[in-house]
Design goal:
The complex is a heterodimer. In chain A, about 70% of the residues lie in helices and about 0% in strands. By secondary structure, chain A is mainly α. Chain A is globular. By secondary structure, chain B is an all-alpha fold. The longest helix of chain B has about 35 residues. Classes of the chains: A mainly alpha, B mainly alpha.
Chain lengths: ~300, ~290
């Protein structure tokens, strides 16, 4: 884009930076500074009497004992935190895969076949965003209780002999809860990606004799690869930090995830240092998907601007 | 059957069935929860007749008469209004500044802003909790801490939405205004800002609806039961001793976010009336989001 710099002569140099300044100050104080505090606590000391974390502000004096303790609890011989990490990866992988498998056909249908009903369908797909997450989980708690509708239905038609304890620490319930909670993000990401696919390419493929299936496999699917990746990232990242789905749909340590470990550490006195260390470990694990997402969205917006 | 299968233009019946199944699965559980908020009995799974008992008829347990539930409802609305009022102007100015400035420092802050967008909420919540309890102790946990945290978390919405819009507006209109003698501030106020209104509006609706439902940040930064909003109330009692009053509370929450979105969409349509037809439909609104 050829920008005429004549305007620059009229505008003082500080004109645009002054618009950004309040936001920049806000992020420095309430986004950068908090992470410095987390580092100072994770690498800090502990009050010998009250066991509360004491932040050490000088990086030279930082001490990694909280991480040694944490890694011991994860990888050590009786590492009781290890299973939660494994479980988190398993739940998030299963739930994101299910989200993709369910959401792709839905997004595909809405972009390609919805016709005049497209607006209405979009409203229906967006609706879950405006329903509180807690309410959506509460709805499932109601349905899955031992005398809830699901059990009564399944016992009634003879699938189950007796009510199944869905809410008593079942990995299936937690995984499906995560799918239900985060699938709207996947649908929206895939819809945005598929909507951008040039329809003429598909027509060309069909005109040249490709079957529906081949057109999908050779044109649509490769062109939506970025959307699939973006969808996987936007559903998997919040799942990684989730603890409330687990608390509401299971409440048992048998299904607890990394988010639950953080929440437990925050809730119990003297574990602040562990919470800080856990949060940093989480950030390191999630750095790659987060950076990948930021890079692809940056590219997409630059392309859109051209 | 064979002919139907090999017909290259057949209707995608299977896909259609899947989509309807998906919609039913996504809407029905919530619809059932809403339905049971009107139950006459205490059960949330067997229907005992229609009543408004859990909204206001019950003198003790209904949302209207239970001071805890009432306070939670008001607190949610208060946080949503305050956060929208702070985050949207801050974010819009930030978006304009970052978009037009384009320095290396601007790129660094743009990265930070995007990072705050993808970061799992629990990480930011823990970091802010430590900030307010260890360094900025003047900030008491409660409404102020919640407001500061929510604005930080929501700031990226107005920035991302407005930047997308700024990119499509370009800077030609402003240049034209300035060539015709407008000062930079006047060009901004009378040319750029009117063009930005739809984006500003869409982001305000988004922030409002998102804050009403916020849970993680608000819970960690709350001081006591008085600063616990509806989402935290639902979380606290969903597994202990819930009555349909909880469903009623959730229904009221649902209605308030739906109302905000419907109003927002109405205004959005008015704002984009003069533009290409696609912009002013649900699709345009969704694209903003």
């Amino acid at each position: 884009m050829a920008t005429s710099d004549r305007a620059g002569a009229w505008r003082p140099r500080w004109f645009w930076p002054s618009f950004a300044a309040p936001g920049m100050a806000w992020l420095v104080v309430l986004f950068l500074l908090p992470f410095y505090v987390v580092l100072s606590i994770a690498f800090g000391a502990v009050d010998p009497l009250f066991r509360t974390p004491v932040p050490v502000w000088n990086p030279v004096q930082w001490n990694p004992f909280q991480f040694q303790l944490l890694f011991d609890r994860i990888f050590g011989p009786d590492g009781f935190l290890g299973p939660a990490f494994v479980r988190t990866f398993a739940f998030v992988a299963a739930a994101s895969a299910l989200c993709l498998l369910l959401a792709y056909p839905v997004a595909y249908y809405v972009t390609r076949y919805a016709g005049r009903r497209k607006g209405l369908l979009l409203v229906a797909l967006l609706a879950p965003f405006w329903v509180s997450y807690m309410m959506r989980m509460l709805a499932w708690v109601n349905l899955l209780e031992s005398d809830g509708m699901i059990n009564r239905l399944l016992v009634g038609i003879g699938v189950l002999g007796e009510p199944f304890p869905w809410l008593a620490g079942q990995p299936v319930t937690v995984t499906l809860g995560l799918v239900y909670g985060y699938i709207p993000y996947m649908v929206l990401a895939l819809y945005a990606g598929l909507d951008r696919v040039d329809q003429r390419l598909l027509e060309a493929a069909r005109d040249l004799g490709a079957s529906r299936r081949r057109t999908f496999a050779l044109v649509t699917l490769p062109l939506s690869r970025q959307a699939i990746l973006a969808g996987l990232v936007v559903t998997a990242l919040p799942m990684f930090g989730d603890y409330f789905t687990n608390d509401l749909l299971s409440g048992s340590p048998r299904t607890s995830m990394v988010g639950n470990l953080v929440n437990d550490a925050i809730g119990s006195p003297g574990q602040g240092g562990q919470a800080a260390a856990l949060v940093l470990v989480m950030m390191v694990i999630l750095a790659v998907p987060m950076l990948a997402y930021i890079r692809t969205t940056g590219q997409a917006s630059r392309e859109a601007g051209r | 059957m064979r002919r139907w299968l090999t017909d290259p233009w057949r209707k995608p019946r299977l896909l259609e069935a899947l989509v309807w199944g998906y919609l039913a699965w996504s809407v029905l559980p919530v619809a059932i929860a809403v339905w049971f908020s009107f139950n006459a009995g205490r059960s949330r799974s067997s229907w005992q007749g229609f009543s408004l008992r859990w909204y206001w008829e019950d003198p003790v347990l209904s949302v209207w008469h239970d001071p805890d539930l009432q306070r939670a409802l008001l607190h949610s609305l208060r946080l949503a209004v305050l956060t929208t009022l702070v985050a949207v102007p801050l974010g819009v100015a930030f978006a304009i500044g970052l978009d037009r400035w384009r320095g290396r420092l601007a790129a660094g802050f743009n990265f930070q802003m995007l990072l705050s967008f993808v970061l799992p909420e629990i990480i930011l919540a823990v970091a802010l909790l430590f900030l307010f309890t260890n360094l900025l102790k003047a900030v008491q946990l409660g409404t102020i801490a919640q407001l500061l945290g929510l604005v930080t978390f929501q700031l990226s919405y107005p920035v991302i939405i407005c930047r997308a819009r700024l990119l499509s507006i370009g800077n030609e209109y402003e240049e034209a205004a300035m060539d015709l003698g407008a000062s930079p501030v006047r060009a901004l106020r009378h040319v750029l800002l009117p063009l930005l209104w739809p984006a500003i509006f869409a982001s305000a609706v988004l922030v409002f609806a998102d804050v009403i439902d916020d849970f993680v940040l608000v819970r960690y930064l709350s001081a006591d039961a008085a600063s616990e909003p509806m989402s935290v109330k639902i979380y606290n009692s969903a597994r202990s001793s819930p009555t349909p009053a909880l469903n009623a509370l959730a229904t009221i929450m649902l209605l308030s976010s739906l109302l905000a979105v419907a109003l927002g969409f109405g205004v959005y349509r008015r704002l984009t009336r003069g533009e290409r037809s696609k912009e002013s439909t649900v699709e345009g609104f969704a694209a903003q989001i």
